[in-house]
Amino acid sequence: MPSEVPQNAMAVIAPFRGLTYDFDGGQDFSSLVAPPYDVIPDHQQAELYEANPYNVIRLILGKKKTGDSDWDNQYTRASDFFKRWEAQSTLIRAATPSLYLTSMTYDPGNGDPECTRWGIIALSRIEDEGSTVILPHERTFSAHKDDRLKLMRASSAQFSQIFALYEDAESRVMEVCRKALDDDPQVSFSLQDGTLHRMWVLQAPSVLKKVTEAFAQKVLFIADGHHRYETARNYRNIMRARHGKKPLNRSYEFTMMYLSNLSDKGLTILPSHRVIKRAPNFNIQPFLKTMDQWFEIRSIPFVQPDPSFNAAEFRKAISEAGQSHSTIGFYCDGADNGYLFSLKKGMRKHMGKDLHPALQKLDVLVLSRFILQRALGFRKQDLDDEEIFQYRSSLKSTISLVKSGDFQMAFFLNPTKIGQVREIAGLSLVMPRKSTYFYPKVLSGLVFNRIDPYEIVQIP
Which residue among 106, 109, 271, 307 is least packed, with the fewest CB closer than 10 Å? Predict the structure, then answer.
């Protein structure tokens, strides 16, 4: 992915008057925040509702009710909560434009030591489709965008940040930010998963100017939040039709982003394993015979019924084999062992002439083309059916889902490499959904952005 862009194409980053929970109100921030809406299962939604009456879950993933109507539904209720919380000073808007510097300290879960990822929450000017400035890398789906657009139209606000990455090998942007830090952050809390979260509010005009200028010749690519970014563009277009395109810096021309450095040592990509409810007419022996056309097959004995005992060895075997070949792990209900499928030499050319060579390198497309579509007989449209396919980042819990009988089988992937993401985005190509799992997810609830069509965003 190029780090320099044409002179007439540049990322426009701006500070903004964010709304935050009252820093001085004695709030337990750990009870107020939530993961992104699209990774929250039903049971966690209920837990977050119970955690605190002001938890952000009421904004990003409101409960549906019997009798919901056009004028009373999860989106209108989110808008009511947001307005009420601001009116009663549960949420307080910054008096001056600000940048919000965050850090997440966490265990990457792959045997490496604890690490910290830094990010800046700012506004970014929305680019048109096909832009060379802000690059997506995954497919999106209309249903998800329709849902987020209903929420944005009801609330005139952005409740969650889009996670984007930028190149800064010398960490100049973060150096400017860190020099401006106070000793104590405005927010500091830990979650039950052991992650430590901190946030500082930067308001010094000289710092804001240096940071925004540093992004002027950078390309951004979307790591997480593709649906929210396209929704922000759709909302912008609606507002343009209503209020006009000028001046260029109206608030609806921008969306809230969490910006992290591609060179940040705390940037982790986890695998996105596939679990399958049911494959039609599946039988293990004919399946393995079919797989032998394309893959070297190795059996990995599961010597104990406890998934935790087998998971570490299985993960290690998949990782080691994946150093030299595209390797997929496999386990099915009732089996006494797992399998490694390592792609044979020369097989990529059989993946299909419609695939760019960069896409042929991706393990997720090796899985899709050879195994899911050809060996198991799934159609392309089936691969996006969440009633059939689900996704997990933990190998141990994925094995457990199959052992319990909840799912028939699972396929295990090595993480997509950051260099592959950079290459795909730079070529304006897209990966299948759930090709990457950036970890940890960016929390919702640290900062909100209210969109006033008559407000002008000031660029330092």
Answer: 109
